[in-house]
Specification:
The chain is α+β, with helices and mostly antiparallel strands. The chain has four helices and ten strands, in the order H-E-H-H-E-E-E-E-E-H-E-E-E-E.
Length: 259
């Protein structure tokens, strides 16, 4: 983890860093006044899409070439707190390619104090839109995807702990039409709702996310039904599996730490 001096303080004029300011809205916090997890996901996907468009390989650019971006994995470390009307700055940049995974880093900080609030490493797949097969780096030969002088926040996507023996079904939820995105499947931010809801269903009290690692394994569409199966330790460690029983597949897994 980097120190609490944000990226813009360390690299004030780096041309690879794309920034966008947000103001936390009251609708984006929960009943305890804390930022909803899906709101954080919304910030990340918004700035990623805007930067990809700026670089010339955004959704519309790739659509005409028969390609689409799909988020595969994301690892989040939350180090600060968010509150309504807080002004925040989100930064992002590509951080290289590992086999078929295109990496992208994010950092969110308080605009006024420069305090780092969250750091994120994400792993994306570039797919053939018709065959839905992964494409490799060479299809974007003219695009700068490596920035070795900038930090990679999470070097390796964490493997979930294997010792969650007391896994219990928490709820079953149906994918709604309003939750689907332009790629015709459940938007990644909606998975965040399921994660947060599952933990609250178990605890029935306030909690704070410190770390979230989510793997999107199988795209879900209306009217798929997902059952959240969860294990939670006294230490705050959690593991959630989203199961589509009708299709006999795991839609996503999420692990991490709460306090």
């Amino acid at each position: 983890m980097e120190s609490m001096n944000n990226l813009l303080s360390k690299f004030p004029a780096h041309d690879a860093i794309f920034t966008r300011d947000f103001t936390v809205r009251y609708s984006e916090v929960n009943k305890f006044g804390k930022l909803k997890l899906h709101s954080l996901f919304d910030y990340l996907q918004q700035i990623a899409a805007e930067h990809a468009n700026y670089l010339g390989f955004g959704m519309h650019d790739l659509y005409h070439k028969g390609m689409i971006w799909v988020l595969s994995k994301m690892s989040i470390k939350i180090t600060g707190s968010f509150s309504p009307e807080q002004q925040i700055t989100a930064c992002t940049y590509p951080s290289g390619v590992e086999r078929i995974f295109f990496r992208r880093e994010f950092e969110i900080s308080d605009k006024n104090t420069n305090e780092v609030l969250a750091q994120v490493s994400s792993f994306w797949l570039l797919l053939d839109a018709e065959k839905l097969r992964p494409l490799r780096r060479d299809v974007l030969q003219d695009v700068r995807l490596e920035n070795p002088d900038l930090p990679v926040f999470i070097q390796k996507f964490p493997s979930p702990a294997a010792d969650f023996s007391d896994m219990q079904e928490v709820f079953t939820s149906q994918v709604k039409f309003s939750q689907m995105d332009i790629n015709q499947h459940l938007n990644n931010a909606q998975y965040a709702n399921w994660i947060e809801d599952a933990i609250y269903e178990k605890l029935q009290k306030d909690f704070t996310f410190q770390e979230i690692n989510i793997a999107f394994l199988q795209a879900q569409k209306y009217p798929d039904r997902i059952t959240a199966v969860m294990g939670l330790k006294d230490s705050g460690g959690f593991f959630i599996s989203g199961e589509n029983k009708e299709k006999n597949c795991t839609a996503f897994t999420a692990s991490g730490m709460i306090s």
